[in-house]
Amino acid sequence: MVLMALAVVTLVTWQLLVRATDDRMDVALRAEVGEFRRIIEGDVDPRSGEPFASVADVLQTMITYNLARPNEKFLGYVDGGYRFQSRIEAPVLLSEDAAFTALVGSVEETTWGRYASGAGEVRYLAVPVTLEGDPSRGVAVVAYFADQERQAADDTATLMLGVGAVTLLLAAAGAWVVAGRVLAPVRAVAGTAQGITETDLSGRIRVDDRPPDELTDLAVAVNAMLDRVESGVAAQRRFLDDAGHELRTPITIVRGHLDVLDPTDPDDVRQTVALVDDELERMNRIVSELLLLARAEQPEFVRPQPVDVAELTTEVLGKVRRLGDRDWQLAGTARADLLLDPQRLTQALVALADNAVRYTEPGDRVVVGSRLTGGELLVWVEDTGPGIAEADQARVFERFARGSSGARRGDGAGLGLSIVRAIAAAHGGRVELDSRPGEGATFTLVLPARPAPPRDADTDASDPLATLPPAAVEGGAR
């Protein structure tokens, strides 16, 4: 576009300059004709004051008393032959050009024309000259070397082309640099997309060193999309890995007992059926918990609503008492209405309480409590069990992980604490563990305290434990 614009401007400017030059030459030719006619009509030789004696004298006077401009030439012809010319300063000598002499030397009326000489175009005006008493016929010619006269216009156009070419190069270089910077995120998006494979979704577009603009926003959006895709794929892989890992054991047990089953022995059949039923029930719990963890990564996993925290804490304590013969205590309650998912929060506390029962003995103390501090809600379950070694405290929240405290192994799948952590994370919080071997353990859910809007006095909270799946009260051991 820049090249086309410069070409059009240069062409138009050159044409205007050429037209102005041609008009100037035409005006100059007409002016010279007027000078010639005044000399002829005066009929007196300015040099002697006497009447002209011949046509040759008239032509000589015309050429002598008219100063030729640059690229202008005066010539005089008598009876078809060259006789006079202005000072010899011309690209070519028209006086020696026989074709030009034949063209203008014998004209009988004023003639305008153009002639292609060895130096280019010649614009001329030939005026016949006669004198009473002289039979000779003369011709006065004014000629302009048009190509040389237009040289200034050509030089201007050449200069414009040169400046335009430099401008074009500078514009192209600037556009290349600017376009490269502007399109860098697009190339980064393309390169990142090409680098994404089924097994590697870790590629991201670097946006730290770019100023904020629309393309940077595009790169950020693509990175966010890749994060979601990678998270979804990772969740699918974890689900498949976990299911394959944990279901392989009960399937092997069932198959092994069925292979050695004696159909003729009623006791063997009865024991095998009971074992198979028990293993199938355990597989069902594992699948339910895995599905729950898979749903934990979806936005609708938690559905916050106004919750009376003190009432919820008291109700949870009343329900977990059924889990075992322990010294159940209420350490305190937070007096606040907050936005929480009562079903998920109850599910997490029941899982922690079930975990405490698994690792304590009858009569041991298990404490449930809640309080507000620093804009956060703390809900905890504390037990007096064997505690958790420091080396195990980080991994007890992993799927299928169990501590090495030496306590008995429960029949859980080791997913309870993973579910608790997922519920806390879905609320925007976390789970903290405070434990030392031999001194028990305290699991604390730290959740953001978001105040709930005022509720109607007649609105009763639904039973948060009523709709829990069976796995909710059978959380895995630590």
From TrEMBL:
CDD domains: HAMP, HATPase, HisKA
Location of the Histidine kinase domain: 242-451
A Pfam match: HAMP
Keyword Coiled coil included in the entry's annotation: no
EC number per UniProt: 2.7.13.3
Keywords, ordered alphabetically: Kinase, Membrane, Phosphoprotein, Transferase, Transmembrane, Transmembrane helix, Two-component regulatory system
Predominant location: membrane
Domain HAMP: 180-234
Superkingdom classification of source: Bacteria
Positions of region (Disordered): 448-478
Reactions catalysed, as given in the entry: ATP + protein L-histidine = ADP + protein N-phospho-L-histidine
GO cellular component: plasma membrane
Molecular functions per Gene Ontology: phosphorelay sensor kinase activity
SUPFAM superfamilies given in the database record: ATPase domain of HSP90 chaperone/DNA topoisomerase II/histidine kinase, Homodimeric domain of signal transducing histidine kinase
Location within or outside the cell: Cell membrane
Protein name: histidine kinase
Organism: Geodermatophilus telluris
Organism placement in taxonomy: Bacteria, Bacillati, Actinomycetota, Actinomycetes, Geodermatophilales
